[in-house]
């Protein structure tokens, strides 16, 4: 009996009418009376929000955090945590699946008005309440009054100046001119005088005017560096600088990796409530590898994701050595023994099968530990009793012969233990496809071989396994769409 099925897909026009998660979030925040605002760029990133390309930075009043949390739970958002060195008090990341685009929406939640990066200096601007009280509903979210947006914008941009900018104009300067012009047109800076006098007396309007002037092309490059230093002096009481070891580590890594061109990216975010081991199983031609690649691409932009093919795990040194001995034996003695059949192939072949079991178990351990740290492990050809004929113990077929000797009994028992220690995944998805359709897809293998392997999956008793079933005979886009909904709901 099937335990659970893939979620039903809407068809026809209803697919195009899928409701945007971004719009639903804005409406739910209003309905729950959450005191919040889009922290910056509230009117300039709407297109990116709606397409799932940009982060949504929300400043939330801490007294309304329970209501905000209820909104996130209602809409299916998941909380994620960055690596330890990148964690900042008062910040958190949440991700939700947008049914309109199939993309993940990243909400960056601020419970304090913070600017800067964990690897340099973070400043808290202590006028959150005034900024939130000035917010009005525009576009999708509430956004602060233009003068507050302009003030925060000026501080954030001045923070970006670096010593290398002495050699040339900052590359980002040209891109911000349109936003700067729009904010200057709308803002009434004189209204900020009282707010700054009460909450940030070290910053005055004259300094803000100088910061804004520095954002225009042609401004003195030396003066920009001096402004950044002046800003730090004025906000010193509200500054949190990155540890020296973190700055040195980033510098060394940047040099070694040629600023990321040779890899070495920062570790990504993991789920706050713990990671998940996800297994996609199915016969040849069901699209397991393709689906795993698509899901890894979908989740891997910001989240910690690993892929593991337990049918063909990375071979250890011991496995390679045994394989070399087998090749040497074939060269000397020829292809003796029935390696793939029921005739006993010899102890060296049995040792090779044991090494494969060990390699699968080692890869399984990597996936489990990765999930324990909050990551998502996407596995294919996962060994389970229902599909052991595809990826499971092989020495049982020669048990009668192996039981006669101490070595044989050791080989049998050790292989059995490896597979017994590979526990069921957290989420199990069975990709089902008609054997004849699989034959048409998998043209690189003999037809009967493909049929047999698909029949094994289709005839297996999956009851009690918690398996979710997806029809893999449809176009890839539809299969991946169903997988996204299914997997996200189970994370």
Write structural notes for this entry:
With 491 residues, the protein is an alpha/beta fold. The protein folds into 2 domains: 4-256, no CATH class; 274-490, 3-Layer(aba) Sandwich (Rossmann fold). Helix content is 44%, strand content 15%. The chain is built from 20 helices and 17 strands. It has helices spanning 13-16, 21-31, 46-51, 65-74, 128-133, 146-159, 177-186, 192-199, 205-213, 221-234, 244-256, 288-299, 317-333, 347-372, 388-391, 399-402, 406-420, 435-441, 447-459, 476-490; strands at residues 4-5, 36-38, 56-60, 78-81, 91-97, 104-110, 114-116, 121-124, 136-138, 141-143, 239-241, 270-271, 276-282, 305-309, 376-380, 427-432, 468-471. It has a 6-stranded parallel β-sheet, sandwiched between helices. Strands 2-3-6-5-4-12 form a 6-stranded mixed β-sheet. Strands 7-8-11 form a 3-stranded antiparallel β-sheet, covered by helices on one side. Helix 6 (146-159) packs antiparallel against helix 7, helix 13 runs antiparallel to helix 14 (347-372) and helix 18 packs across helix 19. The longest helix is centred in the last third of the chain and has 26 residues, at 347-372. The radius of gyration is 29 Å and the shape is elongated. The model is unreliable at 1-16 (pLDDT under 50).
Could you tell me the strand content as a percent range?
5-15%
Indicate the radius of gyration in whole angstroms. Answer: 29 Å
Helix fraction by DSSP (H/I, runs of at least 4)? 40-55%
Please state the average pLDDT score: 87
Can you list the strand order of the major beta sheet?
1-17-16-13-15-14
Instruction: Profile the largest sheet.
Output: 6 strands, parallel
N- and C-termini, Cα separation:
24 Å
The tally of strands reads 17
Total of DSSP H or I helical runs spanning 4+ residues: 20
């Amino acid at each position: 009996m099937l335990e659970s099925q893939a979620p039903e897909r809407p068809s026809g026009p209803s697919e195009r009418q899928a409701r945007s998660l971004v719009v639903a979030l804005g409406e739910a925040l209003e309905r729950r009376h959450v005191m919040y605002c889009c922290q910056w760029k509230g009117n300039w990133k709407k297109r990116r929000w709606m397409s799932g390309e940009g982060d949504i930075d929300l400043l939330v009043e801490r007294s309304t955090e329970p209501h905000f949390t209820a909104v996130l739970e209602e809409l299916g958002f998941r909380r994620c945590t960055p690596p330890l060195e990148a964690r900042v008090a008062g910040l958190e990341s949440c991700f939700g699946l947008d049914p309109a685009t199939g993309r993940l929406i990243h909400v960056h939640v601020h419970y304090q008005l913070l600017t800067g990066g964990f690897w340099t200096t973070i400043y808290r601007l202590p006028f959150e309440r005034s900024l939130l009280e000035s917010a009005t509903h525009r576009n999708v979210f509430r956004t602060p009054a233009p003068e507050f947006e302009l003030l925060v914008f000026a501080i954030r941009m001045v923070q970006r100046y670096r010593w290398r900018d002495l050699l040339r104009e900052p590359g980002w300067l040209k891109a911000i001119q349109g936003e700067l012009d729009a904010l200057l047109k709308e803002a009434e800076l004189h209204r900020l005088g009282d707010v700054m006098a009460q909450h940030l007396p070290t910053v005055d309007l004259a300094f803000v005017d100088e910061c804004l002037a520095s954002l225009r092309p042609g401004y003195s490059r030396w003066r920009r560096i001096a402004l950044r230093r002046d800003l730090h002096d004025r906000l010193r009481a509200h500054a949190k600088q990155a540890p020296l070891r973190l700055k040195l580590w980033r510098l060394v890594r940047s040099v070694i990796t040629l600023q990321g061109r040779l890899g070495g990216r920062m570790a990504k975010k993991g789920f706050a409530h713990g990671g998940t081991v996800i297994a996609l199983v199915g016969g040849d031609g069901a699209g397991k590898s393709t689906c795993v690649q698509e899901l890894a691409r979908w989740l891997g932009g910001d989240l910690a994701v690993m892929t593991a093919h337990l049918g063909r795990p990375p071979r250890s040194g011991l496995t390679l050595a045994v394989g070399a001995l087998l090749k040497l034996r074939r060269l000397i003695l020829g292809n003796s023994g029935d390696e793939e059949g029921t005739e006993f192939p010899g102890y060296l072949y049995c040792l090779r099968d044991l090494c494969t079991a060990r390699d699968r178990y080692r890869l399984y351990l990597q996936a489990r530990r990765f999930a324990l740290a909050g990551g998502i492990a996407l596995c294919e050809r996962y060994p389970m009793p229902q599909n052991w004929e595809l990826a499971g113990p092989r020495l049982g077929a020669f048990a009668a012969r192996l039981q006669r000797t101490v070595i044989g009994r050791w080989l049998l028992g050790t292989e059995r233990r490896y597979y017994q220690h590979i526990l069921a995944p957290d989420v199990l998805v069975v990709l089902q496809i008609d054997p004849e359709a699989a034959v048409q897809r998998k043209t690189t293998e003999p037809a009967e071989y493909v049929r047999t392997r698909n029949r094994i999956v289709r005839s297996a008793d999956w009851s009690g396994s918690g398996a979710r079933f997806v029809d893999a005979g449809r176009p890839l886009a539809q299969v991946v769409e169903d997988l996204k909904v299914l997997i996200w709901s189970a994370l």
